[in-house]
Amino acid sequence: MNSVDTSWKKMAKSKHNKKPALLRCSPFSLVSTLAGCVFMIHLIMLYSRNYSVDLEVSSRLLTHHPIVRELERVEEENIHMPPPRKRSARAIKRKPKRPTTLVEEFLDENSQIRHLFFPDMKSAFGPSKDGNDTLNYFFPGKIWLDTEGNPIQAHGGGILYDEISKSYYWYGEYKDGPTYLSYKNGPARVRCYSSQDLWTWKNEGVVLAAEETDETHDLHKSNVLERPKVIYNSETGKYVMWMHIDDANYTKASVGVAISDTPTGPFDYLYSKSPHGFDSRDMTIFKDDDDIAYLIYSSEDNSVLHIGPLTEDYLDVKPVMKRIMVGQHREAPTIFKHQNTYYMITSGCTGWAPNEALAHAAESIMGPWETLGNPCVGGNKVFRLTTFFSQSTYVIPLPGVPGAFIFMADRWNPADLRDSRYLWLPLIVGGPADRPLEFTFGFPMWSRVSVYWHRQWRLPLGGGKNIA
């Protein structure tokens, strides 16, 4: 045993006393390595300069577009807070008086300024209400009427432009009931509207109906269905709907899939599942230029977003998945593409209360994604920090104006979800981002995303008929 220990000590001593070998390289190798580094730096600088010039030229062309100049005019809001309510001396002693915030006034259904956030039917707009002086004008936050004069019910929705019928289709939740149990008193699930111009919407009826008797069914009226999105599969000829499926307590956390032969349904419900074996809440789908479609969903208790491709028939997810925005607690994702760059707008997780939106960008849809900052412009500070008191749901190209889009959002009314409002606002991609990259010291080369607040704004002449 002693001889073994002695031998081991000698080996260890010999090992530690061994002098490190000197790194030898010829002068030619050293010069070649240095030249290679200089060449790579030159290429990176050249690429960055060319990319920046391209962005600057593109931004200049977009800025000089007359419609864009009109949409970028910032509108400010100055809302006066109502006088404080009278309180008893005992109440004041129990809970000291403090100023009420604008967000609290927004959430208070008895607020004296509630009409500023949820104007009544007298100010409604739409083809059955207005004259030619407001034709093609959007009024964010006001009641939007369909061709029959009824308020549009398509919350948390998305838009499909169908190349076959040359029409737009707006799919969204039909809300009914006073709480988040929004289908307790109504049989409808998903309603569809059609349009030729993105402003005049015809009610095509319920395209995915509720199950009224089978309480175990995903579509039972006591359960939750949110954020329906539809894409078309040219290979199968099917219209495929994906949606968030949940129970009344939001513990099921799944996605659901339905299909139809026509954009106006009816859609046949197929199944629900936990994609990639994870919980799924707020979600969206995105169909890329190469016809590959992706599912993006908030997961792991809303702490991270997951993204992954769908199968070729769009009826399931492939096993490939990436976790993005880890630990950032983002939801309500909406994704779009411009000049080979992918952009996303997300919301924070505060229930029905509004919060600050963030814009993100990536060169590959699977990431890595970088945060660009708050996209909201105009209104006032509180408006910008609450996404104009709304939450993102979808982004579509603004017809006839390359580089411009329509940002679709919902202004939720928790006390009466069917009275939740729609905010459609112009979104422009252009200008430098206002937040540095997370893992480097520089700013991204891609452009800033800006959503401009307007009390009213119009589509280009001809409406949505000049689709890009």
UniProtKB/TrEMBL annotation:
Gene3D superfamilies on file: Glycosyl hydrolase domain, family 43
Keyword annotations of the record: Glycosidase, Hydrolase, Membrane, Transmembrane, Transmembrane helix
Chain segments annotated as transmembrane: 21-47
InterPro entries: Glyco_hydro_43, Glyco_hydro_beta-prop_sf
PANTHER family: GLYCOSYL HYDROLASE 43 FAMILY MEMBER, GLYCOSYL HYDROLASE FAMILY PROTEIN 43
Family, per entry: Belongs to the glycosyl hydrolase 43 family.
Protein name in UniProt: Galactan 1,3-beta-galactosidase
Organism: Brassica napus (Rape)
